[in-house]
Amino acid sequence: MARADEENNIVNYFFCAAIFLITVLCAIYGGIDYDVHISVCPKLSDALHPFVYFSKNCEPLWHVLTKVVHRIFFIPVDWAAYIVSGLCNAILYEIIRKYLSPHCKHAQLAVFALLLAGPLYLPWYNKNIYLGQSSPNIWHNPTLIMAKRFALSAMIVAMRVMQTTVSFKDCSSCKKDLLLLTGLLFFSALAKPAFVQVFFPAIFVWCVVKVLVSKGKYFSTALILFFCCLPAFFVLLSQFFLCFLISGASAESGPSIGVKLFYVMKIHSPNVFLSPLLTIAFPICVLALSFVQRQKLLDSTKFSWLMYLFSFLFAALLYEPARPSHGNFGWGMAIAIMVLWVESAKNFLVMKKNSARIAMELKIFVVSRFLCKMADVILCFHILFGVIYLYRIVFLRNIE
User: Fold this and answer.
1) What is the DSSP letter of 250?
2) Contact between residue 335 and residue 194 where contact means Cβ atoms under 8 Å apart
3) pTM of the model
């Protein structure tokens, strides 16, 4: 038993190191966003005026940590940046591994494969692998890499709270989860507001439906979740105020946020409905499989789909008139896709286990087996094109 645990630890260390190394290589050879973000890392004088620095950089968490590593270990700031991002993705690997371990015997390899997955690539349709489709794994943006571990952790903790009916009298029983959720949402917003932008409307709709279905019994849980979201909401509000109301709009430049359906998506997507499907083909297979097998989707998977729908809506409607091609309202969709992939993988593993115990009609059994194999094949193609995308980043320096 001890030997097996030791071997498992060695495998974990290997895959953590591999993810760390891949992230560092992508940052060195394809991290075009790094130069911009490194240039706004705080100076020593900014430590005395943190609110002034926040007014200049509204997503400061990655920048502050990079500067701390730079100062403590006396290494060049660019290498501190690469190390911080590498550690963030290594931690993300470990979070997903622990989350999927109860459902998967070889969780280390499965999680490593998930973190390599990319959108399906059809050269005759989409000349770019990433642009126009997005991806469950984006390697060139450091603030997104920083935010993802907080986002997924917040999602996992939120689902634990959301699946219980908690009153103010007995909320001490899950006080640790409530405090943890509050902190994770807060730091997620400081890293990059993309996750909370899609999490807040999704949790609002979820809680409203739950309150109506439970005839008011879920109201106290909804109210507690509301208070957990408040600190991150105030951060988001201040980011919006500073970015778009103070430094954004002016009489000369016009509004800093525009609303136009599919305006940004049409810049890179040959078809605004087909292109997003290339990124979520595997989750769609899992969704289809649940209907065929008549197995209910896990609540966490339902919620991740709800987040994805809101993220798609924001990406489709909103843009920055001064720089529409940047697609900055699409970052929420990037994080929602990552969460959707993790939850779909978990749901897929659960359904595979349950299907062996469920009595099915022959027709349903055949269709179910076909969809399972189809999901496996599509997942393999996602991983293959994700590896090709990594090759293009590192060796061709092409992040598109």
Assistant:
1) B
2) yes
3) 0.93
Residue 116, number of CB atoms within 10 A of its CB: 20
Residuewise pLDDT in 10s, the chain (400 residues):
555 566 677 888 999 999 999 999 999 987 778 888 988 888 766 766 777 788 788 899 999 999 999 999 999 999 999 999 999 999 999 999 999 998 888 889 999 999 999 999 988 888 888 888 889 999 999 999 999 999 999 999 999 888 876 665 666 667 888 899 999 999 999 999 999 999 999 999 999 999 999 888 888 888 889 999 999 999 999 988 887 776 554 444 445 788 888 888 888 888 888 999 999 999 999 999 888 877 788 899 999 999 999 999 999 998 888 888 778 888 999 999 999 999 999 999 888 776 666 555 666 777 778 888 899 999 999 999 999 999 999 988 888 7
Whether the CA torsion 296, 297, 302, 308 is positive or negative: it is negative
Q: How many C-beta neighbours within 10 Å does residue 93 have?
A: 24
Encoding tokens for residue 218? Answer: 């879920």
> Which segments of the chain does DSSP mark as H helices, in order?
2-30, 32-39, 50-56, 61-73, 77-100, 107-114, 142-162, 175-191, 194-213, 219-240, 265-268, 274-277, 281-293, 299-317, 331-355, 362-396
| Among 148, 244, 245, CA closest to 196 | 148
DSSP 170: S
DSSP 30-50: H-HHHHHHHHTPPPGGGGG-H
Residue 185 CA to residue 144 CA, distance in Å, equals: 14
Buried b (16+ CB within 10 A) or exposed e, 161-188: bbeeebeeeebeebeebbebbbbbbbbb
Sequence-separated (6 or more) residues with CB below 8 Å from residue 252:
none
Beta bridge partners of 319: 258
